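Batch job 17 of 40 flagged for manual review because the log was empty.
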Amino acid sequence: MSADTLPEPFQNFVNAIRGHFADGKKEAELWQCVSKDLKTLLANPSLIQQSKSWPNTKQGDGPPSNLLFYEDPEYGFVFNALVKGPNSVTNVHDHGPSWTLYGVLDGGEHIQRFSRVDDNPVGRGPAKLKLNGEFDVTPGYIDVVPPWEIHQETNGDHRTIGFIVRSQKSGTFKQFRYNLKNGHIATYKGPTQIPFNLA
């Protein structure tokens, strides 16, 4: 998965992200800059058309997988896709210590965000969660998800395709799922990674 084998728009995107790292930007600023670059990529007609042929990687309330397009050998960021079949819902979860930029290519979904209002440390329950807000997203929207932010996504009777930039590959760190009813916290390694070539 060398950057040289990616189509030109993705090579340009890789170079832009590497440039932000090389400039020494702090994380919050860096990922806001990447979000602006991602906005341009999401508007590329060839990416939108190609994404329609990507296989579903999540069905209903089943476990998620991600298409893995690229992992940067120097800075560790990755490009993924999460393709939800109709009427899919995620667990209430976080992304651990990673930053995640979730860009909607097709479809749309409803997002809920939560925060912990208990005094227990990260990863230890029971967790008492407060709903901070909820909103609907449509194609072109980019959700910038900081480390440890707790959230849940639900789509309707349509497919939803998300192009994702992560600060590190899922499976290399711990993430947590949260039970809203009893406060239980479960550890998991995130979505299964499926290597996939971008034509």
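Reviewer: the log was empty due to a logging misconfiguration, but the result itself is present. The chain has a mean pLDDT of 94. Unflagging and moving on to job 18.
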